[in-house]
Amino acid sequence: MGLTDSFLSIESLMWLFLAVFMIHDLEEIIFVESWMKKNFPRINRFIPMIARKLVKNMSEVKSSQFAVAVFVEFIVFIPITYWAVEQNHYVLFVGCNALMLVHVFTHVAQSLVVKSYTPGVVTALIMILPYSGYLFYRMINEDLVTLQEVLRYAPTGLFVLPLVLLGHKVGKFVIRE
Question: According to the model, what pLDDT value does residue 50 have?
Answer without folding.
Answer: 85
